[in-house]
Amino acid sequence: MKTSRLEAFSDGVLAIIITIMVLELKVPEGNTFADLRHATGKGLLSYLLSFVYVGIYWNNHHHMFQLARRVTGGILWANLGLLFCLSLLPFTTAWTDETDYARSPVVLLGVNLLAAACAYVGLQQVIIRAHGADSELRRAIGWDAKGKLSPMLYLTGILSAWFVDTHGRIGVIIASACYTAVALVWIVPDRRIGRAVSEFGSPD
Amino acid sequence: MKTSRLEAFSDGVLAIIITIMVLELKVPEGNTFADLRHATGKGLLSYLLSFVYVGIYWNNHHHMFQLARRVTGGILWANLGLLFCLSLLPFTTAWTDETDYARSPVVLLGVNLLAAACAYVGLQQVIIRAHGADSELRRAIGWDAKGKLSPMLYLTGILSAWFVDTHGRIGVIIASACYTAVALVWIVPDRRIGRAVSEFGSPD
Amino acid sequence: MKTSRLEAFSDGVLAIIITIMVLELKVPEGNTFADLRHATGKGLLSYLLSFVYVGIYWNNHHHMFQLARRVTGGILWANLGLLFCLSLLPFTTAWTDETDYARSPVVLLGVNLLAAACAYVGLQQVIIRAHGADSELRRAIGWDAKGKLSPMLYLTGILSAWFVDTHGRIGVIIASACYTAVALVWIVPDRRIGRAVSEFGSPD
Amino acid sequence: MKTSRLEAFSDGVLAIIITIMVLELKVPEGNTFADLRHATGKGLLSYLLSFVYVGIYWNNHHHMFQLARRVTGGILWANLGLLFCLSLLPFTTAWTDETDYARSPVVLLGVNLLAAACAYVGLQQVIIRAHGADSELRRAIGWDAKGKLSPMLYLTGILSAWFVDTHGRIGVIIASACYTAVALVWIVPDRRIGRAVSEFGSPD
Asked: In angstroms, what separates the C-alpha of D19 from chain A's closest C-alpha?
């Protein structure tokens, strides 16, 4: 079975997830910029944040499936698991943003990001296993420092937000730094895959 | 006529159905986990349930169309009928969940699931008929125990919820067990189709 | 330019239009079927009606583009015009249904259906013109009785609802009969196109 | 890497953006046209305006990618930037319309349109750079008067709305004229690209 329909369905779900938060922006009552600030609050910033996060996953999903040649039942479910985790991101991002980065929302955002990262790595493993020992994706990814580092950074962030300086802001600041660091690492999609596609060709 | 556009449209509709319930999750007023539990209630659980149900149908729809080589007017309408039934699942799942599995909602959920199962079997029959006596899909599906068992299990569930132990919980528990049993049977997409695709090749 | 992307975009828009009304169904407060009837009112019926109307257009759009070999700027805009008209159908159907088929909503629904029918015929003409005198679509459609009859039936319906028996129900009943007649005529997608595709082959 | 998946994802996002505002149309309480006017207010007009704007971008996006042969990480992000700008258009259009073209909303709409125009030009540049000095897109676009004129017109509009005749309507009228002028210039998708596609062939 070819990957095209799985990609099309994922694109549909991700297109909805990435635009969900724009539905929350309410048109201001008045006609000045002060009214605008009052009406949207932090809505715009949360929207941008969640847009970037989902965008990062879309870009990397797109890259990863360039090296997948077939789809199995396991890949379908691993992909649905990833989509489920990502679909909660607009919600957790909005809560974090609206509470000015309070402790519990920051922990929940970290758990959500961690779950998505694990689902992504899981999907990668299922694809590699479905393609046999000689998988092009496995060779392209190699030791996968990015994939191994991200969950550890998220975990550090979650634990900091929960345990460090519970009456102050330091734990939350460490956590935000960790989450941002992972985003920066992934914002450039995987060059290793780009190289592998040039070498082996794309399956489409 | 080829199946690609029918699949693309179905993917679009299913992508919307699978993510509809995330729109219902409201960001909590406060910033603690207690506020979160109060704000989302059972929303998250209903969302997960409905996500899994729609996911099962998407996976099996995807498998079934691997063996469809052409599209007729009848297939278009049978497919729209299935999509209509599935589009009501988020609604019936949410009602069931929010009423703590009360009798009427459990009956309605069963009717909805039964309607979707019948629409699925109907679509399968229409596809087989459109491809002639020698249809690969028919040979792949064979006697179709899963397709025949599911409606009977749903019916058992609906009748139990409606007639058994109307002042207690036993009828509802039997019904939930029936619905879950069908989901488990279908969560692994059809291996027979997977084998047939390897044998005959995919139409794309 | 090929038609695949125009079809994909139209599928996306139509998928959203066809499922919009399910977002309006609110989960009932209580847990009995009476609560359900109170909460959804006529929502479910409007949803079904609008689903069928949009489904008819999707099926016919799908058929028509089987015989389109290229896309021009004019086709893009004619297609967007059709999508715009169709996107208002959930709204006009709901108003008609919720007011128990009052005069003004029935007139508005007729105007909306008429606009969509004109946009469809317009799109058909633009496609034919873009393919030259020898267009396969033109030969397949021939004299196009269906396309010529529909606007006239809609117009009859609109005028009946507006002028006939303005204090009673007869005008509205005639209008509803006209609208239903057109739907029945179009519910079977164009067999002429099906035949032409077998004869000339599909462009994909 | 091929462009098909980037186009499919953009189509999904644009399909959502173009139909978002129809979700805002609320069914009137009463059953007369006066109730309709009261319930929808300027909703319908804003919807049409935003539909046309997004339609213009979809048409031109579609044309531009006809001459793109491969996708890079930079193209993915430039494209996401454009989608983000466009996703705010329904919001800014609605605010402008509902405040009867007050000064601040007109300025904000201009900023949004300017941002989208810059993102479009940026995407065009990134695509050209990814295809090397000999890019077909660059040859097709040539000196690109349209691309250079649009931001200047938007800027003129923004400055007029903000500084000219701040107690009267003249500044706002100039701004609206500027925005409309750009829309009219772009409503016909790029014929230069159409010619180039005939000459070089499309990558699909």
From this structure: 11
Chains contacting B (3 or more CB pairs within 8 Å) = A, C, D
CA angle C153–C158–C164, rounded 5-degree value: 110
Interchain proximity D15–C17, CB inside 8 Å: no
pLDDT tens column, A163-174: 988 888 899 999
Put simply, the answer to whether D84 touches A16 (Cβ < 8 Å) is: no
Q: Give the C-alpha separation, C161 to C105, whole Å.
A: 9
pLDDT surpassing 70 at residue A194:
no
CB A70, CB A122: distance < 8 Å: no
Cα–Cα distance for residue pair C15/C10, rounded to 1 Å: 8
Closest partner residue to C31 (CB to CB) among B23, B72, B99 is: B99
Q: Give phi and psi for C99, each to the nearest 5.
A: -95, 15
Q: What is the pLDDT of residue C204?
A: 45
CB contact residues (below 8 A), chain A span 9-28, against chain C = 12, 15
Residue C64: how many CB atoms within 10 A of its CB? 19
pTM for this structure? 0.90
D9: closest chain B residue by CA: B12
A201 touches chain D (CB under 8 A): no
Q: Select the more confidently predicted residue: D83 or A5.
A: D83
Q: pLDDT tens, C180-191?
A: 999 888 887 666
**C166 contact B CB<8A:** no
Q: List CB contacts (< 8 A) between B10 and chain D.
A: none
DSSP symbol at B20: G
Q: Which residue of D has its CA nearest to A202?
A: D1
Contact by Cβ (8 Å): B65, B7: yes
Structure tokens at D144: 């690109």
How far from chain centre, in Å, is Cα D92? Answer: 12
Among A133-142, C166-175, D36-45, name the most confident range: C166-175
Give tens-digit pLDDT for C97-119: 888 899 999 999 999 999 999 99
Radius of gyration of chain A (CA): 19
Distance of CA B15 to the CA centre of its chain: 13
Instruction: Read off the amino acid at residue A11.
Output: D
Cβ-Cβ pairs closer than 8 A, C with D, add up to 84
Spatial contact of A162 and A31, defined as CB atoms under 8 Å apart:
no
- Interface contact A55, partner D, CB < 8 A: yes
Q: Rounded to an integer, what distance in angstroms lies between the CA atom of residue A144 and that of residue A148?
A: 6
Q: Does B53 touch chain A (CB under 8 A)?
A: no
Structure tokens at A123: 């999907």
Reply yes or no on whether the pLDDT at D204 is more than 50.
Answer: no
**Could you give the CA distance from residue D21 to residue D89 in angstroms, rounded to a whole number?**
10
Query: Which stretch of A109-123, B85-99, C50-64, D35-49 has the lowest confidence by average pLDDT?
Result: D35-49
Which residues of chain B carry a pLDDT beneath 70? 1, 189-194, 197-204
Nearest to B97 by CA among B36, B149, B52, B33: B52
- Identify the DSSP state of C31: S
C201: contact with D, CB 8 A cutoff:
no
The interface pTM score, or ipTM, of the predicted complex is 0.87
Q: Which two tokens stand for residue C170?
A: 């007869």
Confidence at residue C107, expressed as pLDDT on a 0 to 100 scale: 95
Task: Please state, in angstroms and rounded to a whole number, the distance separating the CA atoms of residues C182 and C60.
Answer: 13
